[in-house]
Design goal:
Blueprint (H helix, E strand, L loop, with lengths): L4 H11 L3 H10 L4 H19 L6 E9 L4 E9 L2 H4 L2 H17 L11 H17 L4 H19 L5 E2 L2 E5 H12 L4 E9 L3
Antiparallel strand pairs: 1-2, 2-5, 3-4
Helix pairs in contact: 1-2, 1-3, 2-3, 3-8, 5-8, 6-7
């Protein structure tokens, strides 16, 4: 099937992928635009996985103030080059992360940032709750693990459901931008202030 240049351009405009990648995706899907987007997304996310771990020393520090100065967030998000840091896509991502922090009050960036003593304390609480509820010993560990995963979803930024689309996490949102921008992106740190606290 012959793929028209206008169809390739439309796919490029909608996905931000390169010309040849768009053409190949359209050829692979016999000109089906929606299926081609899925193919590009799958290939992009596969490339995103490879980029995780690369040095990210550029980026932005973004300040977000909410509610007439009653709540503030300062977040540092890094990428690999200054060029990407200046793109609208990257700036939009950093702002969305700041909004997430303002709205969902995470305490840690990654699961690895949660101190071991906090995890042990949470596990002990969940174990005692399950025992007090009379749960069978053989399922208590599963209950504890499930509650620990919920703890991560509420306290760890990258594990939280994205406030604008709870079908994906903040980690998923970042991976999508890695696939689009072609660079590793890392949330380095954040601070969230509430007036009077």
């Amino acid at each position: 099937m012959e793929i028209s240049a206008s169809l390739v351009k439309q796919l490029r405009d909608e996905t931000g992928a390169g010309f040849m990648e768009c053409k190949k995706a359209l050829e692979e899907t016999n000109g089906d635009l929606e299926k081609a987007k899925i193919v590009l997304k799958e290939k992009g996310l596969a490339r995103a996985e490879k980029k995780i771990g690369r040095a990210a020393s550029q980026g932005l520090i973004h300040a977000y103030i909410h509610g007439e100065g009653k709540l503030g967030v300062l977040v540092e998000v890094n990428c690999e080059t200054d060029f990407v840091a200046r793109t609208e896509d990257f700036k939009e991502l950093v702002h969305e992360i700041a909004l997430q922090i303002a709205g969902m009050s995470p305490e840690y960036v990654t699961v690895e940032d949660v101190p071991a003593e906090v995890i042990e304390q949470e596990k002990e609480i969940y174990r005692k709750q399950a025992e007090n509820e009379g749960k069978p010993a053989e399922i208590i560990d599963k209950i504890v693990e499930g509650k620990l995963q919920n703890f991560y979803k509420s306290k760890v930024l990258l594990e939280q459901p994205y406030v604008r689309d709870d079908s994906k996490t903040i980690k998923d949102l970042i991976k999508e931008k890695i696939a689009l921008l072609g660079e590793n992106i890392v949330v380095r740190r954040f601070v969230r202030w509430t007036l009077g606290e």
